[in-house]
Model the fold of this input.
Amino acid sequence: QVQLVESGGGLVEAGGSLRLSCVAARSVAENAVMGWYRQTPGAERELVAGISFAGSTTVADSVKGRFTISRDNAKKTVYLQMNNLKPEDSGRYYCMAADYWSTLGKSGYWGQGTQVTVSS
Done:
């Protein structure tokens, strides 16, 4: 069974918005650090935004002021609100769960990803 399930991706025109969701299974620790990563063809996955159980966040400079990460711990769901989308935001977005900030992106669980395509 997949531990993380993403949804909300799609095709959108530049300047538009999308809201991604990631639902964690019971097997994923409730206090896990969660992150959203983007991957483009031929490139490694890169951190877009992360959030701790307590709600502290980090965002990539490229999306600062446009993307917001949040979570509902009771629902074990993480969100990524993406506003004023740009073509360079395109890629497959993956949800990731880790035990610590230091292991985010290195050790934990990955979702199957959801595709985001932004046209000009």
User: Anything to note?
Assistant: Residues 94 and 113 are 4 Å apart (CA to CA). The first strand starts at residue 4 and ends at 7.
